[in-house]
Amino acid sequence: MQVATTFSLTLLFLRAPLMQAIGAFPTLINARVAFEKISSLDLAAHREAFGHSALRHNWQALTLEQVSYRYPDEESRPGFAIGPIDLTLKRGEVVFLIGGNGSGKSTLARLLTGLYQPQSGCVRVDGMPLREEDWTRYRQHFSAIYTDLHLFDRLMGPAGESPDPALMEEWLAALGMQSKLDFDGDRITNTNLSQGQRKRLAMLLAVAEQRDLLLLDEWAADQDPQFRRVFYRELLPQLRALGKTLVVISHDDHYFDQADRLLEMRGGQLVELTGEQREAASRDAVARVSG
């Protein structure tokens, strides 16, 4: 009896580390995926100071010229690719981008904002191609809110200082977040919010930065219908009045009239919808992007 008990206890002690190792396996898998996503981004190298005020200039046109990008090949199939793409954004424009799942919208967004660098083609600012040392400066023009956003808990102005108090009060009201957020100076002490509220907070953080280009990836998808209308009919014009150039990834066909231009990704290729094509998309965007 004593031998059996001792044997059972020995098995229990041996089993415990094994079960702990098995339990940790999903966490390790998630960590690997996260590291792979981070390594896929072309992040800027650490520098002691960036000199924010010197990194921007009064651009008038950003151009993607014959830009292509391909993800690494997988065992069973070649990596997804987009391009070659030609696109020019003019300062002050409101551009909507539509497309089905897997069409390349998010990849184009990352190329446009400088998170990815083209594997062929070039990006030009007012006709001048970006050199390797220009990419950090280029990225400083953008604020972006992606669908898989990460929220920081501190409001920062254009050069890392405290943001404009009047601007923050105005946008807290516009976003309906006055009673939702608590502050300790510039730090937000409660970020445990619904997804729709998290995106509103991300908008507040982006406005505080006062950068001149704002990319919004399905920002309105998690808002209730009433605030979705506020976003398209009121917030977009307010953002434009702040001097921002807007790139809005959206499937909300009822609001395509708010865009100066309507672009669509189809199988890694970019087309601009005009005339009857744009009217057809505005009548039934869901049918177009699901086809």
TrEMBL record:
Keywords assigned by UniProt, alphabetized: ATP-binding, Nucleotide-binding, Signal, Transport
InterPro entries: AAA+_ATPase, ABC_transporter-like_ATP-bd, ABC_transporter-like_CS, ABC_transpr_CbiO/EcfA_su, ECF_ABC_transporter_ATP-bd, P-loop_NTPase
All residue ranges annotated as the ABC transporter domain in the record: 62-289
Signal peptide: 1-20
Keyword Flavoprotein: no
Keyword hit for Signal: yes
Domain of life: Bacteria
Record field: transmembrane: none
Protein name: ABC transporter domain-containing protein
Organism: Vreelandella olivaria
